[in-house]
């Protein structure tokens, strides 16, 4: 069998490595330049590869093509692959064919990384043999090749789910749905939502599907879709049993046994993180982890970098890095969790954003808007006349300089951009790192 891997990043190199370990004929192609660390893995393992080019003739002779989630499905090469009827898979699909481990897969528009990391922490804290992968951490495929885990907790994007055929998690979680990546789904919200629901399409009645009962689009689609897995809801608005819910003071998980915990004991802040904790606790209970162990994990979990990360507090002003908030809904959760007046840094590559969702929150909580991007016109036009203080910047240094000048004691400076990072930065991580660097430089002068 001829395997071709498109993309020489973490997932692509991991997939090529797994193919090599399984004795398959594998070739990796990347139209860009492959990082030295990945090139070293390919070279050391005698995996043939090319960079700076796609040899289409060779690629189209493959029996099975593994595609990086970063390659758009509308790309000409992908269209030609589909026209030829060659099996096209994501790394998660490919790797799952070579492991009998139980997979816990997490998707949603927001909270994926936090919830995936939290579930991993719950399992690890209970001494379970577990790996962390997907859109986070080490390549899932490389772990399947080298490590013998009994469980894998995977963060899964809609782009990865677009390219599955047989992927079947033991537990799947769909945290929420909001309008994101619509440019890749013909600007059709339902098309994007259906891609997310593919996480459950191969599940059987001995599997579990955890979903958000407060999410309108999820409920609408659940009425139409046939999902065979046992459905378990979580909610911040109503009591559900079996399932998990919260009131003003506590979270509750109602399964075979009952578990409750005070909200102020949770290590994570914000309503959205209460929902994430409910979803993660349900997964823990399905895996028969004790209430005491789950409680301990929820109290000791450290927040994910670039997600509501407190950088520092100087002269009574807090600086929070939420660079991972690349859509409006994510920024909504961040703004909702702010306690006092907020200087909001927003902007980047717009993905079809509708700012009406956060308009009321911005009016109530934001004292100044600092736009950070090459083209801030859409944000400025939307909030013009609704906020007195709007600034147009095109560098992190400038954004932090203005933040420092306008923030007063008791305020929070929040980087929660609503947008992708690729106009000024290499990634949301790069954007967050630059924010932290500038904050720590400027506020300590």
UniProtKB/TrEMBL annotation:
Its EC number is 6.3.2.9. It is found in: Cytoplasm. One of its GO terms (molecular function) is ATP binding. It catalyses: UDP-N-acetyl-alpha-D-muramoyl-L-alanine + D-glutamate + ATP = UDP-N-acetyl-alpha-D-muramoyl-L-alanyl-D-glutamate + ADP + phosphate + H(+). Pfam families: Mur_ligase_C (PF02875), Mur_ligase_M (PF08245), MurD_N (PF21377). The keyword ATP-binding applies. It comes from the Bacteria. GO terms for cellular component: cytoplasm. ATP binds at residues 108-114. Pathway: Cell wall biogenesis; peptidoglycan biosynthesis. GO terms for biological process: cell division; cell wall organization; peptidoglycan biosynthetic process; regulation of cell shape. InterPro entries: Mur-like_cat_sf, Mur_ligase_C, Mur_ligase_C_dom_sf, Mur_ligase_cen, MurD. Transmembrane segments: none annotated. Residues 106-283 form the Mur ligase central domain. Keywords: ATP-binding, Cell cycle, Cell division, Cell shape, Cell wall biogenesis/degradation, Cytoplasm, Ligase, Nucleotide-binding, Peptidoglycan synthesis. Residues 306-418 form the Mur ligase C-terminal domain. PANTHER family: UDP-N-ACETYLMURAMOYLALANINE--D-GLUTAMATE LIGASE. Cell wall formation. Catalyzes the addition of glutamate to the nucleotide precursor UDP-N-acetylmuramoyl-L-alanine (UMA). HAMAP family: MurD. Belongs to the MurCDEF family. This is UDP-N-acetylmuramoylalanine--D-glutamate ligase. It comes from Marnyiella aurantia. The lineage of its organism: Bacteria, Pseudomonadati, Bacteroidota, Flavobacteriia, Flavobacteriales.
């Amino acid at each position: 069998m001829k395997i071709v891997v498109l993309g020489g990043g973490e997932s692509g190199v991991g997939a090529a490595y797994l193919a090599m370990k399984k004795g398959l004929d594998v070739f990796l192609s990347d139209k860009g330049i492959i990082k030295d660390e990945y090139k070293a893995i390919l070279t050391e393992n005698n995996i043939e590869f090319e960079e700076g080019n796609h040899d289409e003739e060779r690629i189209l002779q493959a029996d099975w093509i593994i595609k990086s989630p970063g390659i758009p499905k509308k790309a000409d090469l992908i269209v030609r692959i589909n026209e030829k009827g060659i099996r096209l898979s994501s790394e998660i699909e490919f790797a799952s064919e070579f492991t009998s481990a139980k997979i816990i897969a997490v998707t949603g528009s927001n909270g994926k990384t936090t919830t995936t990391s939290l579930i991993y922490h719950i399992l690890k804290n209970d001494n379970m043999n577990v790996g962390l992968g997907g859109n986070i951490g080490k390549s899932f495929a490389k772990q399947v090749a080298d490590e013998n885990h009994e469980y894998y907790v995977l963060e899964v994007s809609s782009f990865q789910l677009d390219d599955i055929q047989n992927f079947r998690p033991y537990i799947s979680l769909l945290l929420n749905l909001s309008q994101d990546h619509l440019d890749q789904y013909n600007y059709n919200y339902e098309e994007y939502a259906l891609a997310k629901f593919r996480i459950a399409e191969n599940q059987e009645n001995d599997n579990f599907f955890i979903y958000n009962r407060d999410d309108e689009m999820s409920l609408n689609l659940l009425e139409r879709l046939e999902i065979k897995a046992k459905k378990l809801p979580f909610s911040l608005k109503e009591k559900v049993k079996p399932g998990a819910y919260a009131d003003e003071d506590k979270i509750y998980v109602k399964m075979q046994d009952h578990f409750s915990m005070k909200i102020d004991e949770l290590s994570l802040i914000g309503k959205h993180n209460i929902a994430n904790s409910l979803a993660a606790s349900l997964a823990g209970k399905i895996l028969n982890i004790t209430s005491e162990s789950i409680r301990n994990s929820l109290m000791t979990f450290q927040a994910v970098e670039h997600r509501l990360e407190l950088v520092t507090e100087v002269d009574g002003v807090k600086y929070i890095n939420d660079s991972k908030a690349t859509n409006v809904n994510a920024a909504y959760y961040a703004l909702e969790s702010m306690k006092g007046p907020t200087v909001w840094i927003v902007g980047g590559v717009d993905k079809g954003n509708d700012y009406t969702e956060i308009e009321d929150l911005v009016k109530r909580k934001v004292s100044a808007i600092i736009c950070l991007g090459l083209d801030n016109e859409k944000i400025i036009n939307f909030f013009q006349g609704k906020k007195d203080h709007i600034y147009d910047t095109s560098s992190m240094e400038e954004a932090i300089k203005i933040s420092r000048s306008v923030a007063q004691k008791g305020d929070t400076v929040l980087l929660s951009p609503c947008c992708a990072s690729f106009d000024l930065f290499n990634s949301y991580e790069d954007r967050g790192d630059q924010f932290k660097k500038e904050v720590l430089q400027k506020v300590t002068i």
